[in-house]
Structure formats: C-alpha cells, structure tokens
Amino acid sequence: MTSSKKKTIFTAAVLAVLLAVCVVVDMTLPSYHIVVVVIKKATVYSLVAVSMNLLNGFTGLFSLGQAGFMLLGAYAYGVLTIPVDKRASVYQYFDGGAIQFSLPEIFSGALGDTVGTVVGMLAALLVGGILAALLAYLIGLPVLRLKSDYLAIATLGFAEILRAFFQWNTLGPITNGSNLLKSYPAFSHATPYVILAGLMIAVIVLLINSTYGRAFKAIRDDEVAAEAMGINLAHHKRLAFIISSFFAGIGGGMMAMYMGTIAAAPFKSTLTYEILLIVVIGGIGSITGSILASFLYIFSSEWLLRGLDAGKFLGISAPSVFKNGFRMVVLSVIIMIIVLFFRRGLMGDKELPDLLDRRPKKREKEAAGK
Amino acid sequence: MQAILPYVINGISVGGQYALIAIGYTLVYGILRLINFAHGDVFMVAGLVMVYATTALPMYVALPLVLIVTVILGFTIERVAYKPLRTAPRMSVMISAIGVSYLIQNLAFYITGGVPQPVTNPIPWISENVTIFGESTKRVTLVTPVLTIVLVFALVYLINHTKIGMAMRAAAKDFETAQLMGIKINAVISMTFVIGSFLAAVGAMLYFTNYPSVAITSGGMPGLKAFVAAVFGGIGSIPGAVVGAFIIGLCEEIIKGLGYTTFSDAFTFALLIVVLCVKPTGLFGEKVTDKV
Amino acid sequence: MKKLSAFLLSLVMVAGLLAGCGGGDKSATSDSSAPADSAASANKVVKIGVFEPQTGDNGAGGKQEILGMQYANYVQPTVEIGGETYDVQLEIVDNRTSAENGPSAAAELVNRGVSVVLGSYGSGVSMAGGAIFEEAGIPAIGVTCTNPQVTADCSVYYRICFLDPFQGTVLANYAYNELGVTTAYVLGMLGSDYDQGLVYYFTEAFEALGGTVVAESFPEGTANFVSYINNAKSAGAGVIFAPVSINYAQLIVEAADAQGFDGALLGSDTWDSNKVIESAKGKNISAYVTTFYQEGGNPEFDTGIKEWINANADAKTNNGGNDMIAAVTAMGYDAYFTALEALKAAGSTDPKAVLEALPGVSYEGVSGLIEFDDIGDAVRDSAFIKTANTETGAWDFVKVQSVE
Questions:
Q1: Global ipTM
Q2: Given an 8 Å threshold on Cβ–Cβ distance, is C60 in contact with B115?
C-alpha cells in the first residue's frame, strides 16, 4: 500500500518536474529555437510510438499501418482548420476547394477568438482521430484475421494505397492533390504539445491498466489460452486496432501542426519503420520506454548529432568521415545493436514507477504468487 | 493489338525482374518464415556496386564482382542479423530485418551523398535499342524474361536433384525434424540467402540497365512488389513466385496503359490484400492453415 | 542481469546525449572561426544561412546552387555594413528536400544566428521552412523555388527567380507556336507541388491556345517510364512536358530514346543540369528547357567559376564531375550578392533591419536585373530557352522568350 502510494507520488513528481521544465523552456526560449522545435517533434513521436506500442507491444498485433492513420489525421486537421479566406490561395489549382468552413473560425464566433480557435483546433484533431478509427474498423474487418507478418504487410499495403488516394487529383478539391496544405493555425510553443500528448498517453495508460488492457496482454501472451479464458479475440483485437489508430490519427494531426505544411509524401512506410524502431529502442511493452526513446531519438537525430554530418563532433574534426548522412549511420548501428543484443530495449516492460523497485525479481515473484 | 503490344512486352520484362527478386523472398520465407525486409535493399546495393564497379573496372571484372559482393552481403546479413535470433519470437526477427533495411539505406545514403547515381557505363549489347514488331525498345527488355526462365529452371533442378536442394526442401517442410535428421541447418539457411542474393544481383543488373539510375530507395518498391508476387503465387513455392511476378508485372503496365497511372503502385497492394483475404495460400501454395 | 544490461545501456545513451550536448556547443563555437582565411583577420562576422537540399530528390540541384553561393563567397568574402568591414560566413544546413525536415533545418539556421537566409532549390521545403523564418523575423531569399505560394503567404520570403505561371506559359507558347504541336502529354510526380504546379499552368496556357493536353502522374520512386512514353505515343502527342527533378528527367530521356519517341521533350528549370545533358548525349531525342541563365551570358563569371571549380575537387564532385555551369549555380551566385546588397542597405546585421531593406534592393546580376514587387517576387519577364545538343553534350541557346 505504501509502496504504491510512493510510486504514485514519484510518478506525479517526475511528470510535474518535466512539465515545469517545458514551461520554463517555453518562457525563456523563442518558439523557433531548436530546443523547442525538437521538443515538439519528440512529443508527437512519443504519442505515435505509444499508440503503436499499444498494438504491437501490448496486444501482440504486428501492424505497420501507423503512417497511413497519421496521414488521415494530418489531412483531417489541415482541411478543417485552414481559414476560409486563405482557402483560395491554398487550393489555388482547385478553385478554393470544396470545403468552405473552418472549425476554429466557427468556434471563434461562439466562444471568442482565443478560446474558440483552440477549441476548433482540438475538435479538428478529434475528427482526425475519429476518421482514423473508422478507417481502422473497416480495414480491420478483413485484415485482422491475418497473423503476424501477413498482418504487417497488409497494413503496410493499406497505408500505401491511402497515400495514393490522397494524392489523386480527382480528390483535389478536398485534399489539394499533390499540393501542400498550409496556412492553418498551430501551437507555436512546446507546452501545448506536451500537455496534449500527455493527456492522450494518460488515457492509453488507464486503458492498459483496465480489464481491456489485461485482455490485450493475455492475447499477446497466448491467444489460445486467452480465448479459453473467455476473451473474445476478434472483439478485443479490433478494439486495440481502432484505439491505436485513433491515437495515431491524433498524432498525425499534431505532426501536421509541427510541420506547418501537410503533404502525403512524409507519411511513407519509412515513417512507420522509424516509429517501430523507436518502440523497440524503448522496449516493447513499456510506455515510459517509448516516450524516453522518442525523445532520445529525435533529440539526437535532429539536434545533438548534427555535428556528425557537419564535419565536427566532440571537438574531433574529420570532414572526410563526418559528412552528410553519417549521423543516420551511427543511429542505425546503435539501433541494430539494441535489436540484436539488448532485445528488451531501454526499459524492457518496466514503467516509470517500477524504477523505485530495488529488487524487481523478488517483487515479480510475489506478484506472480498473488 | 498493335496498341497493347508495347505494354505487354514491357510488362513481361518487368515481371521477369520482379521474379528474380521474388525468389529470394519465397526461399527465405519457405525455411525461416521470415519476410526478409532487407532483400529489396540488397537488390539496391547490387545496383550501386554495379554503378561503381563498371565505371572503375572493365566489364568482365565488374559484373562477376557485383555478383560476389551481393552474395557476400546476403550471407553476412543472415549470419549477423538473423542467426542470433533463431530462437527469438518471429516479431524480433522481422524487426531485425527492418533494422537491417534501415541500416543499409542509411549507409548507402552516406556513401552516395543521398543523390541518385546514374549508370554512366551500362552493360554493352543488352543496353542497345532494338526494334521488335515495329516497336522500339531496349534489348534488355527482351533478354530479361528469357534469362529469368533459364535461371528458374536451373534453380528448380538444383532444388529437386541435388543434395543441398533436398536439404532445403526438408528444412522448409519441418525445420526441427530436418535438424534432427542431421541436416546442417545453418548451412542450408546460408545457402538460401546466397541463392536469393545471387538472383537479386542478376535482377539488379537487368533492372538498372533498363532504368539506369540507382537511388537509395530504388530497392523499396520493387522489393515490396516482388514480395506481393511471392504471396500471390503461394509463398514458399518457386514456380508460384515466378508466375505471380509475371502476372503483377503485366497487370501493372496494362493499368498504366489504361490511364490509371496514379494507382499503378496501389494496385499491387490491393491485389495483396484481396489474395490474403480470399486465398491466403496463393496460387500454388501448400495448405498452411496455422500460418495465416 | 537483464536489469544491469538495461541500466548500462541507458547509461551509454545518456553519456552519448551529454557528449552530444558538449559536441553541439563546441561545433557551434568552432564553426564561427571555421574559414581559415578569415581567422587571421580581426573582422566581425556576418552569417548568411544556406537552406538547401544536399540529399534526396533535389540533392544534386541543391548542391549546384550552393556552389554558386560558395563561389560568390570566394569572390567577395567581405561586406561593408555601416562603415565596418564584416567577413561573410555561409552557414549551410541540409533540408533533405523534404517538408518534414524543413522546420528543424530552418530552426537550426535560426539557432546559428544568421542575418539572412538563401534558398531553397525546391518550393515545398521553402514553404515548410518559411513559417519558422517568419516567426524568427529572418528574411529569406528564395533562389529557384518557383511556386507562387512560397512568397504569397509569408512576409519574410522574397525570391529572385521567375514563377511557375510564367514558366508554364512560356513553355506552352513555345510548344504551340514554335514547335507547332497541338497535342501535349504532361507528366509530373504525384505529391510534388513543383511538378503539379507547372503541369497546371502549362495545361491552362496550352489549352487556351487551342491545344489538347493529356496529363498523367507517376508515383514517387518510379524508375520505369516506358509505359508513360508509350501512353504519350498512343495519345499522338508531339511533345512530352515533364517538369520533374533531375533523376526522373534522366530516366525519362532514357525511356524516350529506347521507345523511339520522335516528338520533343520539354523540361522546366530543373532539367538545366549537366546530369540531364549527359544522359541525353548520343541519344536520339530532342529536348527543350526554360532556364534562368545561359552559359556565355557573362564571360567573366563563366571563366572565374570554371577556374574555381576545376581547382577545387569537392566542388567539381558536387557539380557532377565537370565544369559545366548550371543555371541554378548562377542563381545561387546572384542570390548571395542580393543578400550582400540588402546587408549594405540595412547598415546592420540585425535580421529585422535586413528585412526592411530587402524590398528596396536592386541588383544587376549575371542572370539579369533583380528587383522585387509587392509580394516579394522577382520582376522578371523573360526566360532563356535552350535545347539539348545530343552530339556535343551541351545545352545550346535557342532564344529569349517573354510573355506579355
């Protein structure tokens, strides 16, 4: 009892400190500072990585469709939030586009400018998530009957098909075809990203600790046994798939906010692979691990290791070795080392509060005994 | 007739190229139950080696070198990235495959500077233009399907009539029992990677003679399509992979000819999903109910 | 044991992180003293950011554009600002051609404290970076990003090149009036706003003249253009207009030759590259491109930069292995001097002052007179048209085309 209380306090304290750090960063640094930019990107990746972990790590469904659902979320966000008077210039080849309203403006009318815009932006994110969830339901009908690698390749295929559709000129009045969506509102500071992603991740954590979460884990560990225990396999798999896609859709919307422009091109299978590898670095089955890994990965690839590309790193100057692309080589070698030799990743299946446990093995045994 | 002829010629050629890659997928899957995500990248590396080797060395040295380097690469990938995970869950091996693919692409990016490399010194004779039935095309377009068929027959002979072939068939049927029967399973697995990489290298030479530019992502799409071909034909089956590859190649070019160019890639994936849902064992696949 | 390994692993990662921090700081400070020749002089330093792709689809073009800036920096390494001599230092950051890398690459430039930014080669990534530059109040001079959207919605973006509506119209006029073609086949990459923008304006202008257009798109990563060429043939097209990046242009030239396409290939400014002309050499095709600069337009610049490229192995590699001058290189050169003019006019290295001075800048560059209109676009009314000489392997000048 005291131990669990301690854990709660510990977790709350860590989260509060992180939030405080973020607020301080926002107050001291301008919004275009590289630190703010990487925090934003890492936060978005955290959310998407956690949503992927929910599916791949906690339910054992190996899906590679994450980029597709993010694409949907991103487009939904852009299409619904571009101000009406900017539409003519954004949809320059499609006569201003087919959609002539903007959620933030609608809500601004009712709730005042600042509040209304924020509510409208959140509503657009939500719509993106819901669309992704709907699509996941439809895709899930045929695809979830497949197992492991077949499921992976089928979801990958769906993401690719989706990308082709979004670039199709016939849908141009909505998606702007091959052209960028831009001029939509976005949070310029890091704190809103952190709070938003934090809330989403909290929801996922609650879900994982509920009966549903336990059912997911049971399916991962042994499908046959889970079914024998009365868990409805199809229902729970579908649920995990839909929920994961919902959060990936929201993550996609936030990604759109971060990027400032939306095109279908960034949402390729490479993005999915990148997120999968982040999940692996953090530890399959650990939310904390996914978040930690996202931050480590984005911080090093976008900022700290840039020296590896620019000729100088740690004061060593070797322009012939440290040239363009070396940074990614180093990162991918680290990833391979983790995949081969540290298969449990940074955190294994431990979470933040578990770090308080001095003797994890004993406790595990006790838990198993109960 | 005259109107669709160029599309058919081209489609068969594309199919031949996919077939050479698809065999690598199907052999490895047959034994290890692993989608070797890095196979498309091995194909791309073969193309890069060809670009560099043909500019620096005479053709009769360069081409064997491409084959040797690619085979060594395939062998090394298996030994380093897949062998240590033999007892691990299938998901770990697949993640390792994705990791290898990521590593190869980043390495290629580093070496090429991220800029597509043109094939400045194409293989003579097959890169020349010829006219067939009044349609102009490159000779490689006509050579590819013939060479593919010859290689497939050689491979089928190897598998059905040699000792290592028998061992491969045994390992594909039952991994553990084959091991108990004294088959050196690691040697068999290495052999499948060697064969797969060899064919990928031949495929790369033909492919990059036809389309003379190697980008670091060049292996991705052909790789995925070849995999779909392997699934379509029935994964684990060599004739299946070849037939599947030719069908996909033909369909793809005809779809482009009909004007649906936007969906020429998406079509392949749609086909994959339909096949997986309707007939997961593919055209020639054995019944494997527990796998899908 | 597992716990221990996990702990060790995280320790390594954290160590790497800290090391990275240290490295980041160091590289930032040591960068400012990087050019060996300027280290000797005690001049103050003004930084010009270079926001260009060095990798990805536009990597080859971006590198050539950077060459122009580096050569300009070599010719004119100092600038007089407010009565003081400043050393000019180029801060080059790779934006990897892609919109998702735009913001962080732009932020990296802002972080390095640049006064003005040059770039980018392509439009999509310019728009992605534009938002960051706008927030930071740093002026940006687009070099060859031709999409109208780049400057339309961004208060800090200016550009020295012509725009897609202009370029599309020039090419449509040329195809219809000079080449006498009534049916055109246009091909662009799916998801590339540059390609699709030009396709749109070309189609609009060509149809207004009374021609017919068949438009198709290919997915990213396509290598096999054979069926596209066949589609053009069966549509009876006399010209294929393909405003695509260099790599695809090479493949299209190859496929057009193999399939025996007897019409003309039309390219946009991206085609004006020695890589494309190398592919076209010895082939049985005809190709026309619009571009910003024609080699020979300014002999002094030509000989100077050729000498510089030949003396510098890295530069030669980046230029594609020879000393042929791409139009984008000339544009990069002009962009650099335009930035210097703005710095001089501002009398300060403060980005805000430069931003205020930039609209008033007028500079006679090697590619022509550079002045900005209200939106921030260059006032340009003519483009060079060149054709590929497949025997000599060079671009031959055809004419200067303008649109009223």
A1: 0.90
A2: yes
